[in-house]
Amino acid sequence: MRTARGEGLRPRLIDRAVAAARPGWTRSLLIRRSAAVLLVVAALAIAAFGRADKDAESVMVAAHDLLPGTELVAGDLVARRVAAGLVPSGALRMSRDGTGKTATGVIRAGEIVTDARLLSPRLPQQLTSSADARLVPVRLSDDAVAALLRAGDVVDVIGPEADVLAVRAVVALGTERPASSGLAARSQSSAPVVLAMDQKSALRVAAAGLDVALAVIVH
């Protein structure tokens, strides 16, 4: 019985294998349908990539890490296409827009560079929302405090007689600078902090800072 059953099944299996290997109408139809599906998928992918590239905008990004105080050269910026919805306000479009300007804080490699990240005539107004804002270099009495300040920090400036010279001034550029050595490195700690503040406060701070180092209170 087992032999007969096995012999009865064997031709059927062989027939199925032969039929599957033989190019017939069913197999041709399956191939055509598969090819059609692949073509549709490819067309959709091409359309999607084309639409994404069409909606992208060219902006300038940092070619490598940039430290505060770095004066940008053309090689510090590279163009990159970014989806329009991800482009921040004030993004640089050409390398010449940033060449010669100074970074106010650390800018990481690949980061989109905006005008707010660079020292410019518009920066004081952007930082303080004051139309008459000015930038004032301030030498602080405590180098340790100066080293803690970063761009965007808000401080009050205090004079030698504990008088308040400026309220809510914004740090535009801290004392952190590109690495240096020798005498330049030793004098780096005493570099001034650049603060943005309204015009009246700027005049008071600049006048007081001519004779003595000033102090700040960090918000």
Structure, described:
It comes from Gordonia aichiensis NBRC 108223. Keywords: Membrane, Transmembrane, Transmembrane helix. The structure is a single chain. The longest helix has 31 residues. About 5% of the residues have low confidence. Among the domains are: 65 residues, Type Iii Antifreeze Protein Isoform Hplc 12, CATH 3.90.1210.10; 86 residues, no CATH class. The protein has six helices and seven strands. It starts with a helix and ends with a strand. The protein has 219 residues and is an alpha+beta fold. Strands 3-6-5-4-7 form a five-stranded antiparallel beta sheet.
Report the strand count: 7
Q: Roughly how many Å apart are the termini?
A: 95 Å
**Going across the major beta sheet, what is the strand order?**
3-6-5-4-7
Radius of gyration: 34 Å
Q: Profile the largest sheet.
A: 5 strands, antiparallel
Helical residues, percent? 25-40%
Order of helices and strands: HHEEHEHEEHEHE
Strand-residue proportion: 15-25%
Which class do the helix and strand fractions yield? alpha+beta
Q: What general form does the structure show?
A: rod-shaped
Contiguous low-pLDDT stretches (5 residues minimum) are 179-188
Report the total helices.
Answer: 6
| Arithmetic mean of pLDDT | 81
Transmembrane segments: 30-50
Domain SAF: 57-119
Protein name: SAF domain-containing protein
Organism: Gordonia aichiensis NBRC 108223
